[in-house]
Write a structure and sequence with these properties.
- It is elongated, with a radius of gyration of 28 Å.
- 75% of the residues lie in helices and 0% in strands.
- The protein contains 6 helices and no strands.
Length: 144
């Protein structure tokens, strides 16, 4: 009878133990969820702020294709993008340096004019891929 009594006591005690555990853990979970949401919200705002600042700085330092004489794109190539340009292009297109020119051309069509300026500045300073620069110039000329 001892075993049957033990089983009976355990089956009666388990729901109470579960409820006690739930009452202790739920406030901690609510606090952790709140802190997680706060961290994500702050990080998102910070990334947005930094991206806008970088895009703004690069847009100011890079003349638009429409303001340059025809054919000037290839003559402005330096071969050494700055660290700021590399960070900016990585924010605009993730994994930029691993993409082919054809991949970048497809993605450039989905970017805003400011983001295209970042890609253009990076290409001018680096590899100077004509297909990418030409497509950006076409999009700028058409007002897209």
């Amino acid at each position: 009878y001892g075993l049957a009594g033990l089983v009976s006591n355990v089956t009666d005690a388990v729901p109470h133990l579960v409820e006690d555990g739930r009452r202790k853990v739920e406030p901690q979970l609510r606090q952790a969820r709140f802190l997680g949401e706060l961290a994500v919200s702050y990080s998102k705002a910070e990334v947005t702020r930094r991206t806008k600042a970088t895009l703004s700085n690069l847009s100011k330092s890079t003349p638009a294709a429409a303001e340059r004489p025809q054919g000037a794109a290839s003559s402005q190539r330096t071969g050494n993008p700055t660290e700021e340009q590399a960070e900016a292009v990585a924010l605009v297109i993730e994994g930029y340096d691993t993409l082919t020119a054809a991949d970048v051309v497809r993605l450039v069509e989905t970017l805003t004019p400011a983001e295209r300026a970042v890609v253009e500045a990076y290409e001018l300073a680096g590899r100077g891929r004509r297909t990418i620069l030409s497509r950006i110039a076409q999009l700028q000329a058409s007002g897209e």
